[in-house]
Batch of 4 targets.
Target 1
Amino acid sequence: MKIVGLTGGIGSGKSTLAKWFRQKGIPVYNADDEAKLLMNNDPELIKKLTSEFGEETYKDGIYNRAYISSLVFKNKKALKKLNSIVHPAVFRHFENWLNGLDSAFAVKEAAILFESGSWKDCDAIITVAADEEIRIKRVMERDQLSKEQIQSRIKNQWTDSQRIEKSDFVIYNNHGLDELKLEFDRVYKDLLKQYQSG
Ligand code: ATP
């Protein structure tokens, strides 16, 4: 089955597009959500993370994101180590998830599709792009985060232009949801045309 990567910065509109793919019957794997679930539930992953980062990695049995973020924030080596433990586990889980699905293509939604290297396993990549100010406003409304908190996340992610350079489709989401839907329809039709016949 063909794999279509769906990525974009924080607040760009990935989840909105993912919802519309699901409504069309296309299976969508949310790599960010699944990674969180695995980090809290996969015994082997929990063991590896604890032995690398210490007992503090889990607080009352729950992954201590604040602790790990503080460790990896300014330490590239620790971040690399974290990724080298988590990404293969997510990759294996994704491969299992794919098994038995019957669809022209499946969508893998990931904020860090490029940063994690998983873009290499995709047959096509969609980037959803939007101006930073617009994204910040949307996320502030959605999550009650401060402008500074959102900006610091943006700083840790690739820029739109880096993502666009490596993408097959670009959807701009600077306007309303009606405009976004038209862009979605255009890309969806194109993907069906390419992948439906096999
Ligand atoms: P994150 O990476 O933070 O999870 P995301 O890329 O998945 O974000 P969405 O959750 O789809 O982005 O969109 C962010 C917020 O902005 C949501 O509340 C969504 O409903 C809203 N939104 C997205 N696109 C538009 C738009 N064109 N017009 C108005 N609101 C929008």
Target 2
Amino acid sequence: MGPEDLHRILAGLNLSFDEPRLIVGATDDAGVYAIDDDTWLVQTVDFFTPIVDDAYSYGQVAAANSLSDVFAMGARPITAMALAAFPIEDLPTSILHDIMQGGLDKVREAGAVLLGGHTIDDPIPKYGLSVTGVVPAHQIWTKEGAKPGDQLYLTKPIGTGILAKATKDGLIDAEVEQSMVAWMAQLNQGAARAARAVPEIRSVTDITGFGLLGHGLEMATASGVRLVIDAGRVPIHPTTFAHAKAGEVPGGSWDNMRHVAPELDVVETMTDGEIVVYADGVTSGGLLISCPRERSAELEAQFAAEDVQFWQIGEVMAEGGHRLTLTGRSEQS
Ligand code: CO
Ligand code: CO
């Protein structure tokens, strides 16, 4: 669901607790709880309906997506529980087996263990993980802490919402789909490790359902700054703009765009059909990292050492006017 829906549902719910061990509640990528003076617990849960045909790939992507919020908080995942819904009567159980194998392989790759899970009979398949991680006390990354002058880095291309719709409608190029699935199945572990090696980095989030602009706005608002994103530098999966121009844009991506619109300043003449690509909901996207300018060479060296692809997509400026600026021209349009 979109940010607007979520805000409406949460409005009026008292999410504050009289509990000093509660460090981060329902405001960031994952919740954080101090188990003692040295160690903080990071917990998150995520699941969704299939976005690719191949069962094993779907399990990998769903698990990589679930694990991502733990990496985005700077934590190390330790345990996972699987959540699955599956039409037991209508589909061969080997499909669910393959989904679970994909998820399990990603849990293992992340260095965590699977403790169990729960499956229900349901007409529409769903799969994902609840993940628990640990981080040394006071070392989490949040959406706060981006400072004017910081450089913004992104570690995966966007466009998966539009391409997933094209996949469902049978319009996607097989090669593009394959590369998109490989990106979505990739863990944010290496990117997080690279950023971890630069202690001055405090503000990180992952790009998922609210899109680059939606999550960027969250970071800008939480940090009290303005993000200036250079459209031409943002990595976008091939053919995304073509599908967007043909009207293949999920409703949720338009919702994201409406949500950021009051805070979005678009410098060059871009059509709504181009801007929406930057608001497109992402599945298992990369990390958005705000890095102090004097540390950016160090971060880039760490990315290279981890063999992680990265794009420097913009910078952080002092607040004033809009919270988000999309500048430049998208080269793909
Ligand atoms: Co997140
Ligand atoms: Co999440």
Target 3
Amino acid sequence: MDKIVILTGAGISAESGLGTFHDEDGLWTKYPLEDVAMPEGFARDPALVQTFYNDRRKGAAEAQPNAAHFALARLQADWHGEVVIVTQNVDGLHEAGGALDVIHMHGELAQALCAFCGHRWPAPAEMAVNEPCPSCNGPGGRPDVVWFGEIPYHMDRILQHLDEADLFVAIGTSGQVYPAAGFVQEAAARGIPRLEMNLDPSETSPVFTEHRIGKATKTVPVWVREMLAHAP
Ligand code: APR
């Protein structure tokens, strides 16, 4: 077994103090996603959307990576083969924990995107309504996060990695949002082992071949130790 592809979701950052989305007390129970995570919501009320992401950017900047983020970085560094981390998270905690070449399929809070010309630049701590784009000077600055109805980033690369993987692992994701929720099906179609590490069984649990239920800060470091101990 050489190549491992790992998909992470909000659950891996929960113990760093960042909220999850679809859980009982998740973010989408407090803020309707139609208002803050859809292009139509941004067109309707850009101030509300910028404030929502400004708060989340601040929260992410203040958060610390936890034992699960550090363990994945260690696996990447010490594994004899390739470890690809694909994340739905926009918080940057994988990199803060030492991970490399993380694929951010839902964008990053630390980046800004011009809705007019597509230019990207490091987001200021607070983005304003009509945030000016440093490239086209238009007032099109928005958070560089993928909203519902938009196409996630780097899909070609991710599918290529899945096609080459010997093991697929999903950590802290509820399996409710596609296309990420469909990655386990891709792995199943190729017949490779599929491990889920989550607090509860997810929507896609039946498609996995192994389950480790519990908090990511407990399950992930144990799994990484086992992988490194049994590596050839
Ligand atoms: N350890 C492991 N798993 C946890 C922990 C924890 N400490 N805390 C919560 N979880 C699990 C929950 O049980 C849940 O199944 O993490 C999962 C989080 O699910 P979601 O809130 O749906 O987050 P995610 O799957 O990342 O959401 C996908 O939806 O709204 C969009 O763009 C947003 O990227 C996000 C996408």
Target 4
Amino acid sequence: MRALTGIQPSGSAHLGNLFGAMLPAIHLAEKYENSIIFLADLHALTTVHDAEKLHTLTINLATDLLALGLNPEKTILFKQSDVPAHSELSWILSTIAPMGLLQRAHSYKDKTAKGIDASVGLFTYPILMAADILLYDAEIVPVGKDQKQHLEIARDLAEKFNHLFGETLTLPTPQIQEETAVIPGIDGKKMSKSYGNTIEIFADKKTLKRQIMQIVTDSAAVDDPKVPEGNSIYEIYKLFSTKQEQDDFAQKFRNGGMGYGDAKKILFEKAEAFLAPLREKREQLLRETQNIESVLQNGAQRANKIANKKLEQVKKQIGVR
Ligand code: ADP
Ligand code: TRP
């Protein structure tokens, strides 16, 4: 059984990424032998058009994952662009992918609905993602809720391929953690790099505090009873606390007497206690950049071996020998 997930190096990682994707992926990968976590730099090219920036973001993301506890001896960590088979299988799958299937994809539909010109790469994004997964016979794919449709497309393409050319590809199953499916940002909308409403994982203490203090609230006074559910301060506090602490915090909101300013300070203390050791670990790793490059090279070697074998099998099935 293999778990696999990809993360785009497209900006500084935030709490939504951490609890919705990175930590669940690292934990799942620990559980299954030869699991895979890769840096989806080819996918990031659909939004990042700056060579230096893409390189820095990629190395930063690798460092983030190692600081969060990814064990590269166990889990295969590599850069998507270091394994050419991803692009090759992507092309092969594109020749059997129905236009209509991709036209219904949210990632593309949302952009065009906003009047943004989509690139062909953004349109075919889900095909590359299917290739990422199918090359490794991945059975479990931990992702955030917003990736569910992409997983369905991967399954559809695998099924169609198997139907046309014989059983070759394994159908993946998404693993979505419901309780952390959508983490709200400081404006109450889904936390996302593209909305500028994030709380970063590895920001310094001062920035962390500033981002938390910026959480938007309503105008309830200190003594007013408040509804905890759906309140961003409470929803984010939940990520860092035990069930008992959550209940206490919720009760204080309901009773009135705890103002939003105080609530944010409590949240900050909790978040800082959780994030400070990770920040330290990360700084230590950053001093060993060469180490990170060699971890990625080693990961690419292992990934190429698995991916090339699968690609050979695919090529044989379709008649490209
Ligand atoms: P962003 O929206 O910030 O660009 P990405 O699309 O790069 O984030 O998402 C990377 C991973 O993190 C995906 O698996 C995604 O589902 C997850 N994720 C992103 N934002 C959130 C959030 N607010 N809550 C839960 N998971 C999230
Ligand atoms: N599209 C995913 C995201 O934006 C990243 C990704 C690329 C991915 N390839 C993948 C996730 C394969 C899981 C499996 O979050």
